[in-house]
């Protein structure tokens, strides 16, 4: 089992969730996060004063998936969130050793 984690632009969230839902993903976790990558921060002007914003708002999407679905989910997230500009985000996977549904006690694939 894998945990697919994606950091994406906020405007791409709807396209990503729609693509995952269409693929058959039954659950995911979405978190508002902030950070920076190669683009660093940016400057903004407010009432004539310039401010440096060190972090940029992003969305973190996490999906628990069967090993067989890992590549398809990664490809879907990339296709739905790619704009071709700097700051589109990152996708990575983590090995998950055990998953338990709290309500029923089901484990692993049955817990998805």
Automatic annotation (TrEMBL):
InterPro entries documented for this protein: N-reg_PII, N-reg_PII-like_a/b, N-reg_PII/ATP_PRibTrfase_C, N-reg_PII_urydylation_site
Keyword terms of this UniProt record: Nucleotide-binding, Phosphoprotein, Transcription, Transcription regulation
GO molecular function, one term: ATP binding
Domain of life: Bacteria
Gene Ontology terms: biological process: regulation of nitrogen utilization
Residues carrying O-UMP-tyrosine: 51
Pfam (any one): P-II
One Gene Ontology term, aspect cellular component: cytosol
Assembly with partners or alone: Homotrimer.
Record PANTHER family: NITROGEN REGULATORY PROTEIN P-II (PTHR30115), NITROGEN REGULATORY PROTEIN P-II HOMOLOG (PTHR30115:SF11)
Protein name as annotated: Nitrogen regulatory protein P-II
Organism: Brachybacterium alimentarium
